[in-house]
Automatic annotation (TrEMBL):
Classification via InterPro entries: Ade_phspho_trans, PRTase-like, PRTase_dom, UPRTase/APRTase
EC number in record: 2.4.2.7
UniProt subunit comment: Homodimer.
Pfam name, any one: Pribosyltran
Keywords per UniProt: Cytoplasm, Glycosyltransferase, Purine salvage, Transferase
Catalytic activity: AMP + diphosphate = 5-phospho-alpha-D-ribose 1-diphosphate + adenine
This protein's name: Adenine phosphoribosyltransferase
PANTHER family: ADENINE PHOSPHORIBOSYLTRANSFERASE
Signal sequence bounds: none
Function: Catalyzes a salvage reaction resulting in the formation of AMP, that is energically less costly than de novo synthesis.
Gene name in the database record: apt
Amino acid sequence: MSKHAAIESDELAADRTDRAAHAVEQLTRWRDDFPAPGIRFADLTPVFADAEGFRSVIDCLAATAPDADLVAGIDARGFLIGAGVAASLGTGVLAVRKAGKLPPPVLRREYQLEYGTAALEIPADGVDLRGRRILLLDDVLATGGTLAAAADLFAQAGAEVIAAAVVLELTFLNGRDQQGAYPLTSIVQV
């Protein structure tokens, strides 16, 4: 690649990120005391409902790991972005589900939320994950337990999380500190 092409690629990447960040900043709906008192909820539904906003988010997230061979989206809004990114990359998509939503056998990982505890599951059979290169996606990174639990599930299954990405990162909750060695990208940090 020539130096000019590399600069052009960097400019295109910056433009893609700027468009996605603008959509997230303009369209995110914030709600205080939801789902519990003291929690400020970032609702990305308006971002995903806007055609240009959704496309810019998908393009930005897909660029974080173009060499992934499987995209994993975390329950539930991660399913939306995961499917979009997988279609963009030409890969499959796997839903990382909340406990009790998949038939056994499953791999299960419990974790702490900012307002309680939960568990995630992936199929223990039917999808061979050994050696797969995973792009792990979620909508919001808060305390980091959900993303870290999902990454642990894939490691347990013999897969490699090569990158993780979120639409919005709440930096004051230090969720990035809970993550593994994989690169972690967030479109917007608050």
